[in-house]
Amino acid sequence: MAIGRLVMSTRERICAIEIEESGLLMTTLRTAEEVRDVAQMPDVPLPMPDPQMLAIAEKIVDQQAGEFDPAEFVDRYEGALRELIEEKKKGHVPRARPAANDDTNVVDLMAALRNSLKSSGGESPIEQRPAAASRRREPAKRGPAPRSRPRRRGSAA
Question: What is the distance between the alpha carbons of residues 33 and 62, in angstroms, rounded to a whole number?
Answer without folding.
Answer: 37
